[in-house]
Amino acid sequence: MHGLMQDSPLVIPMILRRAMTLGTGMNVVSAEPGGNVRQSWSEIGERSMRLGAALDTLGVARSASVASFAWNGHRHLELYYGVPNAERVLHTVNVRLHPDDLVYVVDHAGDAVMFVDASLTHLLAPIRSRLGVGAFVVMEDGGSIDPAFADDPRYEELLAASDPVEPSANDEMAAASICHTSGTTGRPRAVAYSHRSIVLHSMSELMVDSHAVRRGDIVLPLAPMFHVNGWGLPYAAGFAPASLVLAGSDTSPAAVGRLIAAERPTTMSGIPTMWAQLESTFVDRSVDTSSVERILCGGAEPPPALIEHYTDLGIDFFHGWGMTEMSPSGTGTWIRGGQASDERVTRQGFPTPTVELRVVGTDGSELERDGTSVGELQVRGPWVAAAYFDPGDDANEARFDDDWLRTGDLARIHDDGSMEIVDRRKDLVKSGGEWISSVELERELAAHPSILEAAVIAVPHEHWGERPLALVVPRDDTHVVAANVREFLHDRVAAWWIPDLILSVGALPKTGVGKVDKRQLRSEYGTADGRREPWS
Ligand code: ADP
Fold first, then answer.
1. Mutate-to-test residue for ligand 1 from 179, 184, 229, 317, highest number of ligand atoms within 8 A of CB
2. Topology of the domain comprising 428-525
3. Crossing angle of helices 12-22 and 195-204, rounded to 10°
């Protein structure tokens, strides 16, 4: 017998309808050079429906992909809703990609049209003729428009000339958006999310053990909207509904501090480097950050000291793990404000309901959940990719094992079901036939009082095969002495893990989404042989 319940399609129009009808009194605030722009969810909804009609005017076919090249702001949010609701597919392009990668991803997704923030037009001007899109639309965000885009249609004019059309999307399996991975370990790969996967993922972010986005929250996502759908928060905020504060082009600690003081967010999201940069804003109380109750942190492992800085202030800290292929949310754990931390804070936590995890050994068999067996982490669930966007992508063979996605991360699962990342497979250091985890070594290095940030890469070694090289960024006004750091590590890691080479640097290179760029580090230092000077 079949169940006799209604088969409501899980489509993004469902989220928008809820935001428009239940979001009364809540705002979408966008920081722009001329001041903060404040809109209601109804206004956002109405404008997104005008955008749907504008896509018809521009001649963009149903199912065609529409690129956005934009900061976090209300026009980008209108694209998030307006494009999929009008049965087109939104492709959120990372504005920090190298020009050659930009050309690659736009071509790869086959974008028909591109919506560009005025303040970003200068980045596209030199490659405009290489981008095979049919039209550009300029979104006036208060930045200056590069002369190469002087004659392109303007977003506001298009919207003003269009009457709103009701969302027509009703096929939950249809593609809603495309995201490329941030390319930390290789060329960006594309994932195509469905309406259904986005709706289910957004609902999961309302769960208390997940991102805990609640009705009436004020959500300030620092995660860019071009990185995995802004971690789903622009949709989760619509679903709750909650207010959204969108930071625009200036995400410096000073600007974010001003935004926090003015808009009083209750919850914020960002990767560990962003939280490290904001630490002093929160700790020295130079601005009023007292509204922030909950912090969402993911994308890389946060050092325990960083977590403590926030929990000591009474803020609840969510440590989440995920990936582009997972929309991105996979696992997480809350470390409660004011609570003493224990060794478990470095775990990536428990899978969100419907997500399943397993670790698999080199022989392909599933390993025990005993907290010690380390293997490749594999995942499955309704918002996990079943294939890459490009049917010709070699990864379609390599990255899937029946219905499980092979994450490329090495992990152990503890007997309580919590997961702990050991390293990315590509970042492990193989020394004398044994593995050294760069993640663990970085965590211990960052615990040193004079070290602000640390990265570890493998460098070739005649005898051991590979040895770890540590690059460390000293805290302000401090000097890092390699011998002291080695001594500090003695009590914390096995002696053979301790890097022979510890180099003090001014800053670590970052990828477009702000993660430490190990590809860049490998190309700069990967052939270091110990004779390179100056080693500190
Ligand atoms: P890229 O692989 O190009 O960085 P993603 O942004 O999709 O693209 O990154 C996903 C990867 O980031 C994961 O596979 C994992 O290696 C790493 N990651 C994400 N969150 C965490 C975390 N909390 N701890 C450790 N690693 C993490």
1. 184
2. GMP Synthetase; Chain A, domain 3 (3.30.300)
3. 50
